[in-house]
Amino acid sequence: MSNAPKINPDQLWQDLMALACLGATAQGGCDRLSLTEADAAARNLFRLWCEDAGFTVRVDAMGNMFARLEGADPSLPPVLMGSHLDTQSPGGKFDGPLGVLAALEAARAIGRTGTRTRRAIEIVNWTNEEGARFAPGLMGSGVFAGAVTLEAAHAAQDRAGDSFGAALKRIRYLGEEPVGGREIDSYVELHVEQGPELERTGTTIAAVSHSNYLVYITVECLGANGHTQATHFATQRNALLGSAKALVEIERIATTLESRAAVSQLDVWPNNRVNVPHRTTFSVMMVEPQKEKMLALRGQILAALDSIGTEMGLTFTIRADATREPVIFPEEMVTLIEDVSKDLGHSVMRLSANTGHDALSMGPICPTALIFVPSRDGISHSDYEYTSPDHCAAGAEVLMHAVLRRANRT
Amino acid sequence: MSNAPKINPDQLWQDLMALACLGATAQGGCDRLSLTEADAAARNLFRLWCEDAGFTVRVDAMGNMFARLEGADPSLPPVLMGSHLDTQSPGGKFDGPLGVLAALEAARAIGRTGTRTRRAIEIVNWTNEEGARFAPGLMGSGVFAGAVTLEAAHAAQDRAGDSFGAALKRIRYLGEEPVGGREIDSYVELHVEQGPELERTGTTIAAVSHSNYLVYITVECLGANGHTQATHFATQRNALLGSAKALVEIERIATTLESRAAVSQLDVWPNNRVNVPHRTTFSVMMVEPQKEKMLALRGQILAALDSIGTEMGLTFTIRADATREPVIFPEEMVTLIEDVSKDLGHSVMRLSANTGHDALSMGPICPTALIFVPSRDGISHSDYEYTSPDHCAAGAEVLMHAVLRRANRT
Predict the structure, then answer these.
(1) Smallest Cβ distance to A270: which of B89, B266, B384?
(2) Same structural domain for residues A156 and A175?
(3) How the cofactor binds, per note (chains A, B) (predicted)?
């Protein structure tokens, strides 16, 4: 095994820090929303690094980028590994880039051995995982897996009315390759946990067994406008005040049920000092492992909206209502991550995913594994996101060996 | 008195309805924010009507418009009457335009008699009374009265970053006349009540005796961003949830004190579904007749912000803090409105003002009167604002005769 591939931890860390320069925030994070100039710069640099390592990059009509390490038998479907280079605004240095750059370093390490794997291996950078500029997230992988149409994705608009399709073309990443529609042997993704469990338990690696219910509801609240100063609160049909009561009630319900619900987005019309707000929209997100509890959480929240509406003369209407059903990863893939971790001497545990990942898009179309490494203080979607160089390297090692086993299996 | 001037109620109503076509909303209101194309159109039409009636229009460097009916003694300071043509978004047909168009019809009626008043009379359209696009409101009259500098007003920006000065120039209403700095005999303004008292008591006219304390506080709330799904509400330093709690608490405090406080403006960062909001700003408005109660209201609200901040790990910081002290109109001016109303056979009562008016700018620099006529259901700053033709005409008659007595007095 003197020829066993070895990732270079320093190279991986150096690449992560270099990429973090693109869209860097003053607080040490990244603001690299999908299809912005910063995202374009990150893509260009990633392409250069792939080409420097001898991998040709192909781009599909969603801007998804694939760098292929050819296999001994090119007729076999490839093993994919990757994640995304876009971030939240602000986001950190690790959520997304770690999975792409660990895949790049793994591919370079395999390439350095001078041997071929049985199946080809492809590094992938999925477009718009975050959904922070163009909703919803998991867009590039969603179209690849056939869960979202190319037309719907290209028509998605940001708040300024710019379309995904136009922005993709403008940054020159509207590729010619068709999106998906080809056989994939398996998909392995490395990501930061974005939660506190690995750190709390002192574990290095998580093998993700499944995702939880993710429910997104967009609510419109209608009241009546008027002059803020001329009337008492009590006589106003104030959509903002009603929404504030709803937010407080949603917290109370989630806490009582020991479940998770959050409102992080709220828009107000006309949003000036002297007009009673006659309209708001807000999005409620719920995460819950158990179906019955998810239904209870959802039901109690909707009942609370009805009750506040009746009390205050407001109308709450559900404008969008999406449930992402749990994705259960195959036992063989979960075991693969556990086995590889143990063989490499890393502690490993099973976890479920509370957050969206491109692996959730891929799960339905091929055997998929999702690997987590620790997030300091459980923080992500933040300037202060941090995963240590050792944990990044450990994750990259597990990723590489899991992919090698998939690519070489007979 | 066969030569006594008489306003034409049909003409006044026709002018109100014609002006309401400019920036008309589908719901029957108006969206004519200051210095927009709709405001420019309203100004152009108002100027045309003034010139048709033989009055020359002058424009000052704030875009304030003055149409003068010369007096027998041009050396005496003029009596001003008017209000504003801009509206909220959405606003109605009456808040503002009634005072300007009643003044125009009053001036036409006086002109039709072929006699001259002792002092000149000027109709005025004040720029940006509403402050809905460029904050704060009462801007044109505020600069005229020396309460705001011309430089500060021109530098005010809307949400798109457009400056007041640039917008004023673009609509061609950056006039050459200096702003204010001249002696004014007195100012009389007709406005809709924007409250329910006249309707509730079946009274036609209010002589406004004074304004109440108006307190505006802008609050910034800072928390910490993060991933909404990855953490429980309970562990988030969620600035939006903290602000929602603050809004609910502000309502409770105002209701308990039988006073008025409202939040109508709230902005959230980064305002997307998967990021815990780390920052909000919101504006608290308070209206209260009594100083002690205003101080109690203010004190309890600030204490509530501190308490919520401590409980949730948030920082609430006051970013702007303005108190508009009560303006007390001279007894002679209040009595003038009462006397004229009674002489014309209209029921009249005294009221205080809970809302901002250009008359509050003018009060400190000349004897000022403010006349209210009923608002249906007390509604204003709304598409559904309505004042009947009879009430509009009654208000115009009182305005005209009050101005005549001021202009002709020896």
Answers:
(1) B89
(2) yes
(3) Binds 2 Zn(2+) ions per subunit.
**pLDDT tens digit sequence for B158-208:** 989 999 999 999 999 999 999 999 999 999 999 999 999 999 999 999 999
Token pair for residue B128? 């940006």
Q: Cα(B410)–Cα(B407) distance, rounded to whole angstroms? A: 9
Query: What was the pLDDT predicted at B226?
Result: 87
pLDDT score recorded for residue A104: 98
- A194 closest CA partner among A106, A46, A87, A341: A87
Distance from B404 to chain A by nearest Cα, in Å? 31
CB-nearest to B381 from A131, A227, A285 is A227
Q: How many CB atoms lie within 10 A of CB B229?
A: 26
Please check whether residues B239 and B164 belong to one and the same domain: no
Residue B229, pLDDT score: 82
If you measure CA to CA, which chain A residue comes closest to B277?
A: A264
Instruction: Write the CB contacts of B324 (distance below 8 Å, at least 6 apart in sequence).
Output: B211, B213, B214, B215, B216, B356, B360
Question: Domain residues for A305?
Answer: 213-324
CATH number of the domain to which B272 belongs: 3.30.70.360
Q: What is the domain count for chain A?
A: 2
- Note whether B346 and B395 are within 8 A (CB): no
Annotation-wise, does A346 bind a ligand? Answer: no
> Dihedral of CA B7/B11/B14/B18: which sign?
negative
Say how many C-beta atoms besides its own lie within 10 A of residue A299's C-beta.
Answer: 11
- Measured between beta carbons, which residues in chain B are less than 8 angstroms from residue A238? 262, 264
Nearest CA in chain B to A158: B272
Question: What's the whole-number mean pLDDT along residues A367-386?
Answer: 95
Average pLDDT of chain A is: 95
Binding residues of B for Zn(2+): 84, 95, 130, 191, 381
What rounded mean pLDDT belongs to chain B?
95
- Radius of gyration (Cα) for chain A, nearest Å? 23
Output the pLDDT for position A318. 97
- Rounded distance between C-alpha atoms, residue A14 and residue B398, angstroms: 79
Closest CA to A353 of A331, A388, A324: A324
Q: Do B382 and A354 touch (CB under 8 A)?
A: no
Contact check, Cβ <8 Å, B255/A264: no
> pLDDT tens digit string along A35-69?
999 999 999 999 999 999 999 999 999 999 999 99
- Domain boundary at B324, B340, B370, which? B324
State residue A233's pLDDT score: 66
Confidence tier at B228 by pLDDT (50, 70, 90): confident
How many percent of chain A have pLDDT more than 90? 93
- B142 pLDDT more than 80: yes
Q: Give the CA count within 13 Å in the CB-facing half-sphere of A339.
A: 13
Residues in chain B: 410
pLDDT tens readout for residues B358-393: 999 999 999 999 999 999 999 999 999 999 999 999
First-last CA distance in chain B: 19
A191 is known to lie in a ligand binding site: yes
C-alpha closest to that of A398 among A105, A94, A127: A105
* Boundary of a domain, candidates B324, B344, B373: B324
